[in-house]
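Bug #77: duplicate submission created two jobs. Keeping one. Sequence:
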Amino acid sequence: MDMRVNIAGVEWKNPVTVASGTFGSGEEFSDFVDLNKLGAVTTKGVANVPWSGNPTPRVAEVYGGMMNAIGLQNPGIELFCERDIPFLKKYDTKIIVNVCGHAPEEYLAVVERLADEPIDMMEINISCPNVNAGFLAFGQDAGHVEKLTAQIKKIAKQPVIMKLTPNVTDITEIAKAAEAGGADAISLINTLTGMKIDINRKTFALANKTGGVSGPIVHPIAVRMVYQAAQAVKIPIIGMGGIQSAEDAIEFLLAGASAVSVGTANFYHPNITEEVVDGIRAYMEKNGFDKVSDMVGIVK
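Kept job's structure:
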């Protein structure tokens, strides 16, 4: 039985990675998870310069999940290349660097800086607020998505995954725009925008007022969007959103994702990813699937 998957020409040993922002850059989880067992490690978002993130409080628990407004706090690309890439290179796993920015030139600076680094893929976080478009997220406008994807593809040396926001009317329009811009793959979903009021303090639970909702509460929405995107594009899809078990991950594969990404569950169950890998293997054995691609998108 073959657990390997090919995502845009990059072969992973199995279809499981972690969602950006839920796993640091791997080091803090390495005591709990054997990183060699993961198909890939997706790093926390990195920008061209260090970002301090949003004011606190910036995390809140909500029914069925959590809400965060971290604001993509990160050390900047120089420290990341010096410290985090060498750490991950010690392991037999693919390295996917998540890239964020407030303007196209910020994304492009990071993509250019990563060109000669020993990484395998890049995931572009287009849920970042675009300062040039009144802070509308890049990923909410199909025209912006296609244009930014094309700009990145012109200079990228590694395959490019565009990470899609679910905060849109029609996810297929955005998926098609990423494909038209030359994306090698897409990943979805990022967090859904939500709000929580602290009724005792009579104020917002998060200093930012709104935050990204993740966890099991978003899972059915994510499966629906992955299915829709899989019907609309031919490039590979990495599915994510509320995976708590192998069963949740398998839903994404059957819906059309070629690989999956585990996020919020890492916070309360640090070695969940290993369980997901083992669970997918057991499901394949039980159902007679010889390779992961045999089960991708079979639910029509």
